[in-house]
Amino acid sequence: MEFELFLTRLVQGINNGAIYAFLALALVCTYRGSKALNLAQGELAMICTFVSWSLAANGVPLPLAILGGVVVGGLSGAAIERTLIRPLGRDAHYSVLLVCVGLFLAINALAGFIWGGDPQSFPAVVPDAPDDFVPVMGVRLRYQQLVILVVLLVLVAALYAVFRYTRFGLSMRAAASNPDSASLVGVRVNRVNAWGWVLAGAVGALLGPLIAPSTTLSTSMFFTFIIYACAAATVGGFDSPIGAVIGGLFIGVTENLVASYVGFIGDSLKLTVALVILLVVLMVKPSGLLGTREVERV
Amino acid sequence: MSLELQGVSAGYGAGDVLHEISLDVRPGEVVVILGANGAGKTTLMRAVSGVIPRRGRILFEGKDISRTGPEQIVRLGLAQVPQGRGTFVDLTVEENLRTGALSRRDSARVNEDLDRWYTTYPRLAERRRQKAGLLSGGEQQMLAVSRAMMSRPRLLLCDEPSLGLSPRLTQELFASLRSINEEWDMSMLIVEQNAAIALGIATRGYLLEVGTIARAGSADELSDSDAVRAAYLGY
């Protein structure tokens, strides 16, 4: 009985962690190339989810509606990179961060303007009634949560394979590692970085419709997730997709177990647990668990 | 003519570093550009490879490339070994070499070339799976040269290849540049502070002083010239 409870809490942690990891994956995609921490990533995902919702509400089959949102996400990513990020130049880290904060507010306001402030319910891609779960060792694995986890794992495996084994991936990694050398060997660095934003926009737009059935669709649905995602990416290493996933799951599981077993923390101090993990990682290993340490030979 | 510069000026923002430079490299030649720190040697390299904006005419095999970007220039057959080697430190040695072939379309023959450079530099072969940032300075320089050669260029620019290398490694490196020149009939433009060793493999040379060509001549003429001796050879 004790053990079953523990497993249930573990699975809850994994479910939350998968969401953090998913969004962190999108953060990693832009960070690798442009070195931009896109704080507006969650808002971009949110507005794309509204697009999917509108499509679905107008009779488009749900999978196609989600695909529509994903396409909008990718295109928006490219547009943002081209018009707001690239003109600032390669080393304008703080300006880029400020632009992202501005973008956060702008997208949030735009979504409120178009779709209003009321939360909407979002249809689930798989049956999501109370009895739609697989029981494993007494723990309920809900279909919807399994879908998120599976999509996440497939995505990270695909990204890893692309980065590791394709010419395009090699170009991306070269551009991230040393932009000047990369352009000397023929990599079109700006174009490669733009693809990072396309990927990020699409990944975020895929996450939104997967979580919206349980969080409900609203302009504030990503507010806390983006903080968790930043923490996950920091823990895992901002330039490592696999690190982002490990970081996300680690934070999700740890905060849930701590909140369950340490009396005074409970649900109200959950986010604090994530921030403590973040702080410890920053002090002990600033580049994250799997991130690239900045080394320079002089 | 492999490379021809006609009245090229370039700089960074405020004011020019290079003033109306004219020089040429004939096919198969090794041309060396000597100059002190701050003479504009690296700026010259960056102007030719398209990394910085420049004015004047730069002809590569007769084609004007003075408005072409670096990504395109390498595709035309002009590769650069950048100053400080420009290693992709967090990629493996083999991945670094493969980036050199990113500009190529004939991916089937890339592996052949890879083996060729592993044979030339066995130390790279031993460390092919290691992160390139862990290589010694000399090994990174070999890597930079082979990476540039992986694009199958017809003209190789080398920016201060001896930088940070011991005298023995510098000797080895220049010996291998000479054999690349001979085996591949590779035209080369080398910028170097170490005049003695660079003139040793060069056909001709130019002396760059505060952004202008102060002197030009065959390698022998430059070695014998009092000005070069006093300033760069130290005897």
Automatic annotation (TrEMBL), chain A:
GO terms for biological process: amino acid transport. The keyword Transport applies. Coiled coil: none annotated. Pfam families: BPD_transp_2. It is a multi-pass membrane protein. Keywords: Amino-acid transport, Cell membrane, Membrane, Transmembrane, Transmembrane helix, Transport. InterPro entries: ABC_transp_permease, BCAA_transport_permease. It is found in: Cell membrane. The chain crosses the membrane at residues 6-29, 36-56, 62-80, 92-115, 143-163, 194-212, 218-238, 245-265, 271-292. Belongs to the binding-protein-dependent transport system permease family. LivHM subfamily. One of its GO terms (molecular function) is transmembrane transporter activity. GO terms for cellular component: plasma membrane. This is Branched-chain amino acid ABC transporter permease.
From TrEMBL, chain B:
Signal peptide: none annotated. Residues 3-235 form the ABC transporter domain. SUPFAM superfamilies: P-loop containing nucleoside triphosphate hydrolases (SSF52540). One of its GO terms (biological process) is L-amino acid transport. InterPro entries: AAA+_ATPase, ABC_transporter-like_ATP-bd, ABC_transporter-like_CS, BCAA_Transport_ATP-bd_LivF, P-loop_NTPase. SMART domains: AAA (SM00382). Keywords: Amino-acid transport, ATP-binding, Nucleotide-binding, Transport. GO terms for molecular function: ATP binding; ATP hydrolysis activity; branched-chain amino acid transmembrane transporter activity. CDD domains: ABC_TM1139_LivF_branched. It comes from the Bacteria. Belongs to the ABC transporter superfamily. This is ABC transporter ATP-binding protein. The lineage of its organism: Bacteria, Bacillati, Actinomycetota, Actinomycetes, Propionibacteriales.
